[in-house]
Amino acid sequence: MYDPERGWSLSFSGCGFLGFYHIGATRCLSEHAPHLIRDARMLFGSSAGALHAVVFLSGISLDLLMQILVDIVQSARSRNIGILHPSFNLGRHIQKSLQRHLPDNIHRLISGKMCISLTRVSDGENVLVSDFQSKDEVVDALLCSSFIPFFCGIIPPSFRGVRYVDGGASDNVPFFDAKTTITVSPFYGEYDICPKVTSTNFLHVDLTKLSLRLCSENAYLLMRALFPPDLKVLGEICLRGYLDALRFLEENGICNRPHPCLNLPSAELKILKFTWGHRSLESPPRAAAGRMKPKGDELLDHLRLSILPWDESILDTLSPKLTAALSKAVKNQRGYMSKICNFLPIKVMSYMVLPCTLPVESAIAMVQRLVMWLPDMPEDIRWLQWLTSSVCSQVMTQLFPISRSQTPASGQQPSPRDMKALLPSLLSNRGRS
């Protein structure tokens, strides 16, 4: 919620590969209300939301940010079984991109301005980190916040010697004060900036602050958050974020009309002012919308089919830089090799030889991961031993509960020697009952 008197913060939810939505929303805020980001007391983020916020604060250009995400998506989709292929390592891709593109002083740029949501493995509690001493600590925190157990690996990464996993497991939309935080999420729910539906179904669930409306659109988005769709679909999601952010600005009186710096022709500006001044929840005049409709842009043409009627009047206020970057990213994937691989006979043949190629590729990937794991192997093995002993201890505690009178006065858990001494009495008491 936006409160100019008390100050405000921004929180970007975790959303996997749907992080393109955050790009569109942030681009809109930067163009139409730059003070919302510049004067924000704090930025919060979890998983993909944390990655986006840190990259945005680093000053990376829109074209470069778009290219980084496109490269990761293309790498995942280039394999027959996508992100589930053994040779695809999402954490490795993220780490390489962060180490390569983040500036060396990123820890100074975001310390005290950015809170990253983490989930501690030992107790499942949420931890918000906002102080960093080096660039490596920033990268480690982002890797921990984006690590989905079993989906990204078995052994979770560590931050300052403590193991953490995806921040969305405990707090997917972090904030300190809900009344002064503007929340951004690509899912249909109870957020300040999010997609809107015309359905009268108001049922929704709330998991780790992730408010989800019970609708088929959210089911599709949840699946695409883990399994990336085509770049054209991700481009539409990015434009959707721009439109939703613009609607939020208008509803709160922050941006009552389009900014004149969008370099639109004068004729279109007149039509735009007319439609903006006479907007309501009813469908805008189709004549004006038809005259403003750009031709030849398949991203915008497809987006028009899925937006609400009252959003069509602001569709043509989209940032020219954003649409140009998206169009460039979509065109870049259409090389000659991509066209050849997309032929139906080539696809069928690749799936037919998959039982033969997959074992070989899996073996090569296992050897590569083993070589990269060697430096961290001793520490990871010790952690696995601790995890095994902790699980066994909890199982024993559940199977053989101990009364408070038999628990040590210090409140500590009994040692294995005490457990062996108490075991006969517990069994005899259970036999009598």
Automatic annotation (TrEMBL):
List every stretch annotated Disordered.
405-433
Tell where it localizes: Lipid droplet; Membrane
Extent of motif GXSXG: 45-49
**GO cellular component, as recorded:** cytoplasm; lipid droplet; membrane
Q: Where mainly found?
A: other
Residue spans of biased composition, Polar residues class = 405-415
Question: Motif GXGXXG: which ranges?
Answer: 14-19
For biological process, the GO terms are: lipid homeostasis; long-chain fatty acid metabolic process; phosphatidic acid biosynthetic process; triglyceride biosynthetic process; triglyceride catabolic process
InterPro entries linked: Acyl_Trfase/lysoPLipase, Pat_PNPLA3, PLPL, PNPLA_dom
> GO terms for molecular function, please?
1-acylglycerol-3-phosphate O-acyltransferase activity; long-chain fatty acyl-CoA binding; lysophosphatidic acid binding; phospholipase A2 activity; triacylglycerol lipase activity
DGA/G, short sequence motif: residues = 166-168
What does the record give as its pathway? Phospholipid metabolism; Lipid metabolism; Glycerolipid metabolism
UniProt xrefs under PANTHER family: 1-ACYLGLYCEROL-3-PHOSPHATE O-ACYLTRANSFERASE PNPLA3 (PTHR12406:SF22), CALCIUM-INDEPENDENT PHOSPHOLIPASE A2 IPLA2 -RELATED (PTHR12406)
Query: What the protein does?
Result: Specifically catalyzes coenzyme A (CoA)-dependent acylation of 1-acyl-sn-glycerol 3-phosphate (2-lysophosphatidic acid/LPA) to generate phosphatidic acid (PA), an important metabolic intermediate and precursor for both triglycerides and glycerophospholipids. Does not esterify other lysophospholipids. Acyl donors are long chain (at least C16) fatty acyl-CoAs: arachidonoyl-CoA, linoleoyl-CoA, oleoyl-CoA and at a lesser extent palmitoyl-CoA.
What protein name does the entry list?
A: Acylglycerol transacylase
Q: Which organism is it from?
A: Callorhinus ursinus
| Lineage, uppermost ranks | Eukaryota, Metazoa, Chordata, Craniata, Vertebrata
What gene is it encoded by?
LOC112831474
